[in-house]
Design goal:
The protein is an alpha/beta fold and about 280 residues long. The protein has helices spanning about 1-10, 10-15, 70-80, 105-120, 135-140, 160-170, 175-190, 225-235, 250-255, 255-270, and strands spanning about 20, 30-35, 45-50, 55-60, 85-90, 95, 125-130, 150-155, 210-215, 240-245. Helix 4 crosses helix 5 and helix 6 (about 160-170) packs across helix 7 (about 175-190).
């Protein structure tokens, strides 16, 4: 009975808000706390660090059940190169309000508001975004085209069905696939969002923006073959970086300086106004 109850509690557990206090940063990385209105109920909380004029700005979007602190190491190396950075807490994460995690659907509204904020605050700067897992899905599932000059997506799943099944297999082994219909029905109940609206592979071709997809060979949450399908579905110009041995998190921590070199090499032609 306990096992059955725990199975039926999965939907409540994985969609529940991941609210946390983020705290403040040390003086060596000065940021401004910002609140970006999304609607009458939600303000996206974040940190903004303006860069050197002409070097562009980058929106950094964290993974599921995380917050803006996850993106801090990326923000630091970008800022050291003069690039401005905006780190946000997606809705229902960190200090941003929200009742449910929606696998990119309502989180995409947070991304849309953040991009609009950057255009209003830095009208003459070029702009890019880096999203990880849920953050990547929120970028792809934006309901209207994002006015960005470049996009980097890390560890992105192609469909909600595959994302859930892979995670069930990790927790329940060979029985995980048998639980998929039960969990998907729970998600439908809690979120009231069709699964068709939660599949990045059906929307990635809408990105009319230079794209870099970063994936790991050992990612059990999103397999390499799933990532390759995503890449094939995206439009040009696009590139893919497959990192040997990397899992689902955290690509910067795993690849270190090579990550920084690859990301800067990709972003520089699209961000720096003197290029």
């Amino acid at each position: 009975m306990a096992i059955i109850l725990s199975i039926f509690a999965i939907g409540q557990l994985i969609t529940g808000a991941a609210s946390t206090a983020v705290g403040s940063l040390s003086a060596d990385f000065p940021v401004d706390a910002v609140k970006i209105p999304v609607n009458s109920e939600i303000d996206v909380h974040g940190w903004l660090a303006p860069g050197v004029a002409g070097s562009g700005t980058v929106l950094l979007v964290h993974s599921m059940r995380s917050n803006r602190l996850e993106m801090l190491s990326r923000a630091r190396f970008l800022y050291e190169r003069g690039i401005g950075v905006l780190m946000i807490d997606l809705q229902a994460h960190g200090e941003s309000p929200g009742k449910r995690i929606t696998f990119g659907a309502r989180e995409s509204e947070s991304v849309d508001a953040a991009v609009a904020f950057l255009h209003q605050s830095f009208p003459y700067e070029r702009k890019a975004a880096i999203g990880v897992s849920l953050g990547a899905a929120a970028i792809v599932l934006a309901k209207k085209p994002l006015n960005l000059d470049a996009i980097i997506l890390e560890s992105l799943h192609p469909t909600i069905e595959e994302a859930v099944e892979n995670r069930l297999k990790l927790h329940f082994g060979k029985y995980g696939s048998k639980l998929l219909p039960v969990v998907l029905s729970q998600l439908s109940f809690y979120l009231d969002i069709p699964s068709s609206e939660l599949s990045p592979i059906s929307r990635i071709n809408d990105l009319n923006t230079p794209l870099l997809l970063i994936v790991g060979t050992d990612d059990a949450h999103t397999t390499l073959s799933e990532s390759e399908r995503l890449f094939l579905a995206a439009r040009e110009p696009k590139d893919i970086w497959i990192i040997p041995g990397a899992g689902h998190f955290n690509m910067h921590s795993y690849a270190g300086k090579e990550y920084e070199q690859r990301v800067l090499s990709f972003l520089s032609p699209y961000l720096f106004s003197n290029n």
